[in-house]
Amino acid sequence: MAQSTTPMEDAMRAKLTEAFKPTTLEIYNDSHLHSHHKAMQGVTSKETHFRVVITSDKFKEARMQPARHRMVYALLKDELAQEGGIHALQLKTRTPEEEERQKEREQAE
């Protein structure tokens, strides 16, 4: 069996899917955009910077974005803490209702 070329993304996807049962989950690996930064000098990982768009009913429990982000950070704490792990994580967290309103706004424009 071939070894994954995106183990960090795979781990993130598995954890987020299991914990949040998302209706939408988009993970973007933006590491290549940041590889030239001084903080990334000597880092061999190609999976350090991510954007995540996630829609889940679980976010109804935490109405404010900071609380939702803390839920995701807590889930991914090991990936954030490990050497060569996630250096930056940009999140967009929504409930299904918020996602529907966003789609309606985009269609109206």
Walk me through this protein's architecture.
- It contains 4 helices and 3 strands, in the order H-E-E-H-H-E-H.
- Residues 36-41 have low confidence and may be disordered.
- With 109 residues, it is α+β, with helices and mostly antiparallel strands.
- The chain has one domain (7-108): GMP Synthetase, Chain A, domain 3 (2-Layer Sandwich), CATH 3.30.300.
- The termini are far apart.
- It has a 3-stranded mixed sheet.
What is the compact description of this entry?
The chain is of the alpha+beta class. 39% of the residues lie in helices and 18% in strands. The protein has a three-stranded mixed beta sheet with strand order 1-2-3.
**What is the CATH-assigned architecture?**
2-Layer Sandwich
Which strand order does the major sheet show?
1-2-3
Task: Specify the biggest β-sheet.
Answer: 3 strands, mixed
**What's the helical proportion of residues?**
25-40%
Give me the CATH fold name: GMP Synthetase, Chain A, domain 3
Poorly predicted runs are 36-41
- Mean pLDDT over the residues: 86
Strands, total number: 3
Question: Which features would summarize this protein structure in a list?
Answer:
GMP Synthetase, Chain A, domain 3, globular, alpha+beta, 4 helices, 3 strands, 109 residues, single chain, 18% strand
